[in-house]
Amino acid sequence: MLRLHVLDIVFLVILLPENVKLLKNGLALTPPMGWMSWGYYMCAVNCDNYPDKCLNENLILSVADTFYHDGYQEAGFEYIIIDDCWSEKERDENGKLVPDKKRFPNGMKYIADYIHTRGLKFGMYTNIAEITCMKYPGSQYFFDIDAQTFADWGVDYLKVDGCFVKEDYLNTGYIDLGQELKKTAKDMVYSCSWPYYIQFIHKKMPDYQKIAKHCNMWRNYHDVQLHWPAVKAIINHYKNEYDRISPYHGPGQWNDPDMIIFGTGALNENQSRVHYTVYLMLSAPILLSCDMNKITTFEKKLLQNLDLIAIGQDPLGIMAKPYQLEQLVILWVKPHLPMKGDRFHSFSFAIVNLDTEQHLISIYPVVYGVNSTDGYSVMDVFANTFRKNVTLKDYIQVVVPAEDVILYTLFPL
Ligand SMILES: *[C@@H]1O[C@H](CO)[C@@H](O)[C@H](O)[C@H]1NC(C)=O
Ligand SMILES: *[C@@H]1O[C@H](CO)[C@@H](O)[C@H](O)[C@H]1NC(C)=O
Ligand SMILES: *[C@@H]1O[C@H](CO)[C@@H](O)[C@H](O)[C@H]1NC(C)=O
């Protein structure tokens, strides 16, 4: 007993100074799933002229109702996040942020309480600079006050953008704000846009080791736009950056390819399958952004497909590895649970065809790390059927339709 205590003290002395600087908040152990306003609503403040596209209290509460009533919550959708353009243009006399009085007449605590009553979680937005990207008050010089305000409101998730500041400041500001969030002792998933601004605005290489220590998730690449080429560009970016970013990806620390664009009419069914499947294979956060009433029956079924979600929410959180099979055909391979014993993972294989023509593809699973000598049972996830058993000598051959994906999960026998 005494020995243990002494050891504990030694560990405390050695580890504490380093640990207090890290985020280590125990949150987002699987990638957050939910809804965020930006992709579709953007800065929708002109509510008199566009009542159907208005960022206000009604909208946020209605998303909570939809999650609660329409099966999204059971499928894992949890966070409801207000992005930019939620506040008044001026802070109050105590330096606090003030929600837009017309669009959020009952304030943010009211919204948080409503969302929490539904068993869901509430997210908000700020920017690391003096103003937000859309020129509302930002958090620079107010980290402590803002962190406490968000905590007091019951915010569970904070997205922090990185417009309008220098590279040096990005590299310290996100850490400092994270410390202030931690001081409030309110659990908040910390979503940082930090590496995106380093790489694409300041043209430098992000220090992912540092970022992963201080943020629960972070944006790597451009905002998704509401069309298929944007989705393809995101997929290609994650393929190209796999070696650089995958080591920092896992429980509590996620690379974030930005929102899912369902419910906007931007994608056909095959493209929708590709978009969602690749995100789940990456173990990416899944954030919808749309008028929830415009989600099609096809999209809803896809979003709530539990075999798919099990892949994306797998507790191991391993980012699928891409293999270029042909110029426009990429195989993504992801090991996940359940395991047979402690050595043999299950695997999902997503064969993604970005070409406008179908391709006949053959793969030998053994080439991609599957190694159980007892073989595997192969499930076709979209067909929702057992396909066949394979040994380590077998190959799988399949026609992948244009702009579509074939998804197999292999369970060790
Ligand atoms: C099978 O591969 C996994 C890694 O995916 C490895 O940990 C395990 O040791 C391998 N098992 C055998 C028997 O080679
Ligand atoms: C697949 O393997 C399982 C386990 O060995 C066996 O029960 C099943 O019959 C096999 N299915 C086929 C179609 O061979
Ligand atoms: C979509 O995929 C289906 C099969 O999954 C295929 O028959 C169809 O041609 C594809 N549609 C388009 C528009 O590419």
UniProtKB/TrEMBL annotation:
InterPro entries: Aldolase_TIM, GH, Glyco_hydro_27, Glyco_hydro_27/36_CS
Pfam families, per database record: Melibiase_2
One cellular component term from this protein's GO annotations in UniProt: cytoplasm
Annotated PROSITE patterns: ALPHA_GALACTOSIDASE
Family, similarity comment: Belongs to the glycosyl hydrolase 27 family.
Claim: Chloroplast is one of the keywords in the record: no
Originating organism: Diatraea saccharalis
A GO BP annotation: oligosaccharide metabolic process
N-terminal signal peptide: 1-22
Protein name listed in UniProt: Alpha-galactosidase
Keyword Nucleotidyltransferase: no
Alphabetized Gene3D superfamilies for the sequence: Aldolase class I
Top EC class for this record: hydrolase
UniProt GO MF annotations: alpha-galactosidase activity
Subunit structure, as described in the record: Homodimer.
SUPFAM superfamilies, sorted: (Trans)glycosidases
Keywords, comma-separated and alphabetical: Disulfide bond, Glycosidase, Hydrolase, Signal
EC number(s) reported in the record: 3.2.1.-
